[in-house]
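User: Let's play a game. I give you a shape written as tokens, and you guess the letters that built it. Ready? Here's round one.
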């Protein structure tokens, strides 16, 4: 049970002081406007209609605008000014074939008139399927004019990116490396700002949030939210769902970024480290692979609230949220915000995993998930 006893209506005087402290901190950074902010914060009553269920809200960071939206747009609003001030003409980054991060970086590069060159990790996700290889995010990367070169999950990412940047420099370009997942302290500042946005939206709607649930991978989203809520003096549990099948790695990345943000804002990291919650049972055992529970959760969200979740990130996080509610880990008094971090274009790449049966509407058992025999083919 996530125990929560706190009662709260609106930002209190002290929280308003904290909000202006956070705002002042954010003003120290250059930020460029790339996305559509604030994203909506919506009630989603049909997701859990039972009287015993907590109240569910959705923060629509899938609707952040730029290039198909998603959580990295917030990071890029802080990273792009640094790219521009470096005089770069090419952004270098990396991700899997269906990386949402790469797609958002490629879109940002297109928007500001820079080239984008990325390392495409071809062997992390054992899916052998033309949709995966050609549609969804990778299709959009190409549409935004980005170019790629293959890399392996075994490559050391920072070293590979630096080697790529060095080679581009020798060719006369001026590269800037945006790290894997846009995950550094500057990028995570985007979710410090999001914490403030959520607090203000919730306060003006009179919603006393108790939990935020979201997919966690490279850690910037979760670190930014935890530090942001702490700065605001808000006791909201940020529940990160491990989508990497590597909860220790996810926790370590969240911790590293949280420590950097704490140092920047003058908070005690020791106290905040214990607030990091990483749930480890919803990754389907492998990054980039969906199980029937994930597919069922995606179908439920689509059929009850017309929300488009993806099989790699937001679908797994939402499956976790449904399971927490089924296990009674929330009380009916809780107000739970599902942070929809995006990933929608990947749905097309994973099309083969939504069979006819899975798409049939059935209010009791929302959908059947994948047929046996329609599992991902694993590479031997
Ligand atoms: C759709 C989506 N949700 C969640 C995440 C995880 O966010 P973070 O890497 O900040 O932990 C990602 C990361 O790429 C993502 O693409």
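Assistant: Ready! My guess for every position:
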């Amino acid at each position: 049970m996530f125990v929560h006893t706190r009662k709260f209506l609106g930002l209190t005087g002290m929280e308003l002081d904290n909000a202006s402290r956070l705002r002042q901190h954010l003003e120290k950074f250059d930020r460029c406007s790339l996305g559509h902010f604030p994203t909506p914060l919506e009630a989603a009553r049909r997701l859990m209609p039972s009287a015993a269920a907590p109240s569910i809200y959705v923060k629509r960071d899938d609707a952040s605008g730029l290039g198909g939206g998603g959580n990295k747009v917030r990071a890029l609003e802080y990273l792009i000014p640094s790219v521009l001030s470096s005089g770069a003409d090419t952004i270098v980054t990396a991700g899997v074939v269906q990386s949402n991060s790469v797609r958002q970086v490629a879109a940002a590069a297109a928007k500001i008139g820079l080239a984008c060159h990325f390392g495409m990790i071809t062997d992390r996700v054992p899916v052998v399927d033309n949709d995966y290889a050609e549609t969804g995010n990778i299709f959009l990367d190409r549409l935004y004019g980005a170019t790629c070169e293959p890399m392996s999950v075994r490559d050391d990412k920072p070293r590979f990116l630096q080697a790529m940047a060095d080679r581009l420099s020798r060719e006369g370009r001026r590269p800037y490396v945006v790290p894997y997942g846009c995950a550094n302290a500057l990028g995570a500042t985007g979710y410090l700002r999001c914490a403030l946005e959520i607090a203000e939206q919730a306060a003006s709607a009179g919603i006393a949030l108790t939990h935020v649930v979201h997919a966690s991978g490279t850690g910037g989203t979760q670190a930014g939210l935890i530090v942001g809520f702490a700065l605001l003096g808000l006791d909201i549990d940020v529940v990160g769902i491990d989508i990497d099948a590597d909860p220790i790695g996810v926790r370590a990345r969240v911790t590293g970024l949280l420590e950097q943000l704490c140092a920047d804002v003058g908070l005690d990291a020791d106290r905040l480290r214990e607030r990091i919650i990483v749930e480890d049972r919803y990754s389907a055992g492998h990054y980039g692979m969906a199980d029937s529970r994930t597919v069922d959760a995606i179908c439920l969200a689509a059929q009850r609230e017309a929300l488009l979740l993806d099989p790699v990130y937001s679908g797994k996080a939402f499956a976790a949220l449904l399971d927490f509610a089924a296990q009674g880990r929330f009380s009916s008094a809780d107000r739970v915000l599902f942070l929809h971090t995006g990933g929608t274009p990947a749905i097309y790449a994973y099309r083969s995993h939504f069979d006819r049966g899975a798409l049939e509407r059935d209010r009791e058992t929302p959908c059947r998930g994948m047929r046996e025999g329609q599992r991902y083919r694993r590479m031997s």
